[in-house]
Amino acid sequence: MTQQETEAFSRLGKLRATIQRIELFWKDTTALEDDLRLHIHVDKQLEFELDKEVPQIEQRWRELLFELYEYSQPGNIDTATLMIFSRDQLWLQTLTEAYLLGCPAGVQVHNSALLELVTNPIDAFLQMLKTGSGLSEGVEQVWVENYLLEGKKPANLDIPVKRVEYHPQELMSKITDSTAGVMLQFGGRGTYPHYYGEVGLHNCRFLQQSGSQVAFVTVAREDLVSAIPPLGVVHQRNWIDRTIRTYDFKIYQAHDHILESRLSFANHLEKAQQQFLMLHAEQVLEGIVLQ
Q: Mean pLDDT, to the nearest integer, of 66-80?
């Protein structure tokens, strides 16, 4: 049996087990509905803990959705590294803080780092020469000694940023004008579907007295050390021209252009961000069922 056949058998086995759990879930849900009808219409004294039963059913259904997502999108869905890029320091800090404080239920920040612009690439090259590391054939990007190396040929090599890791609690105070971006590694059951919908432009209005700022957000399924920003995004190239959200600080309202939903946030942007992340996850997971 080839490796491909072995993997196919493994996936089918997991799918069969998930289907069996869905059938059991359907039976339990139907039984719960029957008990509720009996409680309402027949026997008011029947012991029925609705506040306890319904959350358990909802949690089981959510886990089944995660399993279906894993089947349709093989790979680790419990880790996501969010990367935020903006040349406006205040907007980068504000958006980063909203993601740090606005984690969905069950999701936590595990690691964080800043991507600092490299002002002296010669020193970076010398460090790489010492390690003997560099781009392999067919590879356009690689981390070398925490430096991001980009390019196809030695003559066109670029070292746009250096990754500097910080504890999440001290990250905000380290962002300066030389910070090109932020990396946030999140973890927890079903983390990736929550952040999948964040990829694109996040526009800010009236954070300062006038004008607007823009940030580009992307996400990887790898951990922070392995995740690599899309080619060219550090220099604001190859930004996906899709507006995900507009944050208006004049009226304190965030407009999600994908969900076509608006939320007020007053002085707590993280609460709106958390709600948007959960709504995006619901949309992604429900889409799996419809498929």
A: 86
Helix (H, G, I), strand (E, B) or coil at 141: strand
Neighbours of 1 (CB within 10 A): 7
pLDDT at 137 exceeding the cut of 60: no
What distance in Å separates the CA atoms of residue 145 and residue 141, rounded to the nearest whole number? 13
Q: How far apart are CA 29 and CA 152, in angstroms?
A: 56
Q: How far is CA 55 from the centre of its chain?
A: 25
| 18, β-bridge pairs | none
Cβ atoms 254, 246 nearer than 8 A: yes
Q: Give the separation between CA 193 and CA 280, rounded to whole angstroms.
A: 8
Pairing, β 243-248 against β 200-205? parallel
Q: Give the DSSP H/E element, type plus range, for residue 38.
A: helix 3-41
Question: Measured between alpha carbons, how far is residue 113 from residues 109, 238, 283 in Å?
Answer: 11, 22, 29
Q: Check: pTM over 0.85? Answer yes or no.
A: no
SS3 184: strand
- CA distance readout (Å), 206 to 11, 117, 123, 203, 222: 50, 26, 39, 10, 34
In single-letter form, the type of residue at position 209 comes to: Q
Type of residue at 62: R
* 230-252: average pLDDT: 91
